[in-house]
Amino acid sequence: MGFDSERLIVSSSKFSVSSKKQKYSSNNVGSSTAVPDQKISNSGNLKYQNIGAQKDVKGNDISSLTPSLFPSSPCDSRKRLFHLPSISSNEGNVPADNFCNLYPTPKSCNNYRSILSFGNIYRTSNPVNDVSGINGKMGLGAPEPSQSSKNVLGFGGCNYGHGSIIKGVKNVENLSNNVCEVAGSKALAEKAPSRIVPHFDSVEKFKNAGNQEYRRGRYMEAISYYDKAIALNCHNAACHNNKAAALAGLGKFTEAVGECLQSINYDPSYSRAHYRLGTLYTRLGHVNEGKWHFKQSGHDLGSEAMQRLLHIEVHLTNMQKAIEVQDWDHVLKESNLCIEAGADASNQVLAAKAESLLKLHRAKEALQFLMVVKNLEESKSRKSSEEAQCLLIIETQINLYLGRFKEGVLAAEQAVNLLSNSESLMWLRKARGVADARKAGNEFYKTGKYLEACSMYGQGLQHDPTNCVLLCNRAACRSKLGKWKVAIDDCNAALRNRPDYSKALLRRAYSNARLERWEESLRDYSVLSKEMPGDHVIADALLQVQMEMKKTKGACAYNIEL
Questions:
Q1: Is the confidence at residue 477, as pLDDT, over 80?
Q2: Which of 184, 274, 480, 505 has the fewest CB atoms found within 10 Å of its own CB?
Q3: Would you give the DSSP letter of residue 89?
Q4: H/E/C letters for each residue in 19-70?
């Protein structure tokens, strides 16, 4: 049997009886003598009023009872009673008017005022541990509560023993589990510890909160909750797996792979982590790793996930063969098929597509594609790898091709910082050599030193012989020096590597006009006029070439409208 979960107040270290009519009961004594009206002072000492002749359960005269630390009966619950100061005098920073809510006494004492029997236990609505400032002192003589207590322990007479339970009292269960004993004056001095949330419940609470945020698409908030759960239990495989899902939602596939590996490390048979890792490797283009984890998760070759991975494997093989023979059209086709099949985060595939666009003279399109790739979260969180370095090298080539030398040097430096090897160092030397040569050559050209400028551009071409910008700049210097034929040669070399390079086309048209090659010059100026219809310089040059051709062969022969 025991009491309910409400906290009980014990006025002393032993138990006694307080009811509407207080009695001293005994199996040997059939009659009982009621305790007359007593007055209890609110001061720190108990005073017993000697009112009439009274007897205890053994028939001893207690008419002139005085406080005693050692009662005569060995079974008396008043044994070792100390005089306690009263809280009603505002000791311990507890207001006197609020004490009635903290330590109520039975309301059923209609004919007795403020009686608190020795050792009685009364139920309160407010736990003792929530009361601050009592400092180990329990007051007596508290105001009356709203109702009487139903949970009463025996007085502890000889036949009941200390703290015996009076027969007939209801709602008394599991006494040993719910009764809080207060021993001595230091019983309430120690502050009760706050409720500690169980370890398992805390982890589950954070994990469930993270799952709710994940379902709402709020991946950063979900990761925050998963991190809190992992901080409480770093070996929880489910939390690592769920965090991997949120990271994948943000596009951070490499970090998601790390969380899945942690999950499998703590639980090698966790099929969900194996399956998620297989899907991540699919998007990263790691075919062999993806196959292994799909098998560990219970998916055979006939499953949809495995079939998708096999399709990616076929396209990757075809792409590599096309790269070996430099069939850039086929490389572009296979790389697009890989991305469509699901390998949209593979650095190998993305680099192959960008390189094929560059080789097909679609450098601007390739640069736009790389800028989109760089803005992805996966690129921002990318760690050291050869595939990531390959993307930066392709970016260096595109920038040099388009004459963006500063950006090319920056991309080459990032490639070296990511992974320093012979290839990255070679492209860094090339980018810096081309950039320095153009800068020095431009300074000479502005001051009219065309020969020195031509020499500097030539030094830059030693690092990158097919660089369109340096070839075109050297053609401009040679035009200024009257070397029209070699200027045309530089323009032709530049246009072979970049057919849409308008500057090289313009300088070739000008050089052909100086050599009175009117047909070649007219052809180039006509193309430029269509590309830049609002350019007055090109329009005037085209008109002048037409007039020269009229003078030479006549207007009717070529049907030219002047």
A1: yes
A2: 184
A3: G
A4: CCCCCCCCCCCCCCCCCCCCCCCCCCCCCCCCCCCCECCCCCECCCCCCCCC
